[in-house]
User: Which sequence fits this backbone?
């Protein structure tokens, strides 16, 4: 794991971790499922982003020419501190190193057209995280709130106790599919309020107790 540097408002910083993989949970907030006109899943809906999508605080989100509708999705991100395989929920919780802020950037038109997640969410720069990691023993998600702003305008806001699938259950579920390694990232889902971002915008995800992830938006 690496030092994230100065963080938001302090210039460009590196991602605070170098994962072997980035695993994401879709539709983990009921209100977001409603706004996307999708049924709440019976078990965690997983997809992945490549490590090449990872950027840090202050680095630009690049809008690719293949899409005309890019959305922000602010999220709490789990950073693993221990390997997990076939873990129960107690073991999964104990393996959490800490938490950081994240943005699941999505090419919504591609997602809608293909009804798949990989290309729509896998472009370079589509996984900003930072500005730092708060250790798990200093952060209980249910006691904190997430907000996402675009150009200072509030788009998303939610307490972090509204998950359909609690974090230990999600980690246990993933570990029964693939082995998780120290430094791997798990994006835990986004609340309602996702929306478009455009060239020239600035996106901020703030979680009290962690800090503010801030990224400019440019057209590639």
Assistant:
């Amino acid at each position: 794991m690496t030092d994230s540097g100065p963080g938001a408002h302090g210039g460009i910083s590196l991602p605070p971790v170098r994962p072997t993989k980035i695993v994401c949970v879709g539709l983990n907030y009921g209100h977001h499922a409603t706004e996307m006109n999708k049924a709440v899943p019976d078990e965690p809906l997983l997809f992945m982003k490549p490590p090449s999508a990872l950027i840090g605080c202050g680095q630009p989100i690049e809008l690719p020419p293949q899409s005309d509708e890019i959305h922000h999705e602010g999220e709490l991100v789990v950073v693993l501190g221990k390997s997990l395989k076939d873990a129960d929920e107690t073991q999964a919780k104990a393996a959490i190193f800490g938490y950081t802020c994240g943005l699941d950037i999505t090419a919504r038109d591609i997602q809608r057209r293909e009804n798949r997640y990989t290309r729509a969410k896998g472009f370079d720069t589509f996984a900003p995280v930072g500005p730092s990691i708060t250790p798990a023993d200093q952060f209980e998600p249910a006691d904190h709130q997430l907000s996402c702003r675009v150009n200072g305008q509030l788009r998303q806001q939610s307490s972090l106790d509204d998950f359909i699938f609690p974090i230990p259950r999600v980690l246990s579920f993933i570990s029964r599919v693939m082995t998780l390694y120290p430094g791997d990232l798990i994006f835990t889902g986004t609340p309602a309020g996702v929306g478009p971002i455009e060239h020239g915008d600035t996106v901020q995800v703030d979680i009290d107790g962690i800090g503010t992830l801030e990224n400019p938006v440019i057209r590639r």
About this structure: The radius of gyration is 16 Å. The chain has one domain: 22-219. The helical segments are 30-35, 89-94, 108-114, 118-121, 167-175.
